[in-house]
Predict the structure.
Amino acid sequence: MNSSLIPSKRSGIPPFHVMEVMRAAEQRVASGGLVLHLEVGQPSSPAPKGVLDAAHRAIDTDVLGYTTAMGSMALRRRIADHYLDWYDLRVDPDRILITMGASGGFVLSFLAAFDAGDRVVVPSPGYPCYRNALAAFGVDVVDLPVDHATRFQPSPELLEPLLPFDGLVLASPSNPTGTMLGADELLRLVRWCESHQVRLVCDEIYHGITYGARAQTVLAYGDSAVVVNSFSKYFSMTGWRLGWVVAPPDLVVPLERLAQNLTIAAPTLSQMAAVAAFDCHEELAANVARYAVNRQLLVEGLAGAGFTDLAPADGAFYVWARCDHLGADSQSLCARWLSEIGVAATPGVDFDPGRGLSYVRFSFAGSEADVAESVVRLRDWVRQNAGSGMDRTRPDDTEEVSQ
């Protein structure tokens, strides 16, 4: 091996810590330990029965060759029908690109929309792969700290001092906080971005998983934004690696060319099966009802364990909880919880490089039994460790919110 060869600078991005927690949890299971999974944002339910049936038919009857880079027209038309059914919006199927998960959608969208050296604002806390992928592409990531004052979402007032910049990444509902923008707030952001020539990239992968008002798509306010969605969350198809992008007209051809060269096409079997997903809303609604029960169990259980500073979980399946009242950073706490009580949770450094050591993200996408048992174990652990150097006073720099 030539010792003078070194990896690229772009490969030196931070790890996605939740994947490391998953690996540690797998190691615990392999050694005979029990793990209650509150770390990963993955439904515990399988793909809907209609999807599974369609996949079996495709395996039995189809060659399963490549689709075009834009994806199966049957699926693109069905997604367009979905926008009409859910949002009363007509979306041209020719603006829809099928991708290898939302992750593939973000990679293609960032490459199509931004050049190396562009400045793109990413709110914190937020999904870490936005920041890390942009950095790998040579984009200057501008961190925007958000908190309870704006319900963990950006606003024009917060963005103004950061000008000039070229792009904004928005998620509603958000990972890890689960907060959503209302229709008026979303409209204000869209108009502000348009007036300042800022490209808006909107993550809508948690649409369908809300606990009150339905999430509004940014497409309702024009066609200038890039919208990324996925079959992984509401449709419960994480391992099928399938997502989509609704592109503004000026990015359709760039996205197609990038897809042709970087991925060729998304998995054909997944595309064929996914057409049936839109006929499975009754089964999928039952999943969301289960998440709602788990949400209540987790919020009440965390309160009983002393975690009272929580972000409002309007959608998705996460609770973002402040933990520094326990007197240890979130990485240490998560390591101890996994080792001592078999509860896997994600340290907040994944989502907020500046303040994440004071926060933990808990996922309630799993079974009701696992969530219920987890909060009992966390409550007992906190009680047993109180007074042992883990109970310092929490800094009073954010509003305390209980649900």
User: Anything to note?
Assistant: The two ends are 57 Å apart (CA to CA). The CA atoms of residues 132 and 393 lie 33 Å apart.
